[in-house]
Amino acid sequence: MLSTAVTFDQFLQAMIDTFYMVGFSLLIGSIIGLPLGILLVVTRPGGIIENKVFYNIVNPVINAFRSLPFIILLVAIIPFTRLIVHTSIGTAAAIVPLIIYVSPFIARLVENSILEVDDGIIEAARSMGASPMQTIWHFLLPEALGSLILSLTTATISLLSATAMAGAVGGGGIGDLAISYGYERFDSTIMLITVIVLIILVQLMQSIGNWLAAKVRREG
């Protein structure tokens, strides 16, 4: 028994729901965000496949979504969420805004990571006669891999924070537990446990990301 209101099984289920939301949203968000980030780099003015029309459309759209605080996005797209999953509460409903939130965030992080790559790498690829796709796959991405890992680590931690906020509107997970049992029932024990668990998870995620990035850079 964690407190007078919450059992260990409830807390465990909340943790499972949180990991499910973060994992699934990160997977789909990466599938969308990674290619978008790459395209932002290669289609920008002076990019290897410059396309001003595409860049000038996608760039402001990503900026628009990035400017919205998650809690506002969560509420604003409730009709869309209901259309997709037929409900606006629970774990499944939280995943829809989480994906919309993290996809442009990942795209921007990926863009920044690739832009850190020295221009000499691109020049070397061109001198070898590499095609744009070969330049991206064999030169840009391997060179930016360490930074990309750190970017995805940042996105994962942001998702964890967002799932906690999703609890404010019944999104499920540890955030919902904290709101329903900690805040609304004035249970300071649950609030304290929730904060401690979130801090531990963030530290663990960041440590793993830092280790992987360092390992990739040493091997590179």
UniProtKB/TrEMBL annotation:
Localization of this protein: Cell membrane
Xref: CDD domains: TM_PBP2
Annotated GO biological process: D-methionine transmembrane transport
The keyword Membrane is annotated on this UniProt entry: yes
Membrane topology according to the record: Multi-pass membrane protein
Cellular component terms per the entry's GO annotation: plasma membrane
Residues in ABC transmembrane type-1 domain copies: 15-205
Top-rank lineage group of the source organism: Bacteria
Kinase listed as a keyword: no
One Pfam family here: BPD_transp_1
Transmembrane segments: 20-42, 54-77, 83-102, 148-170, 190-213
Keywords: Cell membrane, Membrane, Transmembrane, Transmembrane helix, Transport
InterPro entries named among the record's database cross-references: AA_ABC_Transporter_Permease, MetI-like, MetI-like_sf
NCBIfam families in UniProt: PRK10782.1 (NF008049)
Family: Belongs to the binding-protein-dependent transport system permease family. CysTW subfamily.
Designated name of the protein: ABC transporter permease
Organism lineage string: Bacteria, Bacillati, Bacillota, Bacilli, Bacillales
